[in-house]
Amino acid sequence: MTPSEKKLVFRTVLATLLVLMIAGVVGGYAFMRTGIYNISATSQHLQPIYSILEKGMHYSVRYHAADITAPPTDDMQMVKRGALTFHGACVQCHGAPGVAPHGIGMGMQPVPGPLVESAKKWEARELYWIVRHGIKMSGMPAWEYRMSEEQLWEVVAFMQHLPQLSPAEYKEMTRSEDAR
């Protein structure tokens, strides 16, 4: 293949990709303008949409939390204080061991998941970033203006211990006066 033929092939590929990209943007905009896609809180996203949003959220959290240094989170007093904060702010939507989410949490789309698996899915710095900044379009609020830095890390410490807690331990932890 001559250099001029290679150049023609390159330009053709580039032009084709550009046309496809423009067609995708115009098609997406036209689809959005129809209003056909149901955005109500009573229906879930289509699986491909949900998968894309979920994967994008994971990449975004990991990127934005990369420079955060987590303090030690294994102090049981810190975990107990985090349990009390969690009980007051998070249990309504996420539930806890032996505690079902309240109606407000069950009426959201996407439904807030139980956080028992969160310590397996996320590092401490990533949990901190999520609790502090929230997640757009999910109902997960940003707690940075409602909780102190210390409380944010206490909630993270609690979430890391959540998988090991029984309902009785959670109940005792959130009732205990010495945790305050």
TrEMBL record:
Record-linked PROSITE patterns: CYTC
InterPro entries linked to this entry: Cyt_c-like_dom (IPR009056), Cyt_c-like_dom_sf (IPR036909)
Superkingdom per UniProt: Bacteria
Domain Cytochrome c as annotated: residue spans: 77-163
Keyword entries, A-Z: Heme, Iron, Membrane, Metal-binding, Transmembrane, Transmembrane helix
TM annotation in the entry: 12-32
GO molecular function: electron transfer activity; heme binding; metal ion binding
Coiled coil stretches, renumbered: none
Official protein name in the record: Cytochrome c domain-containing protein
Biological source species: Oxalicibacterium faecigallinarum
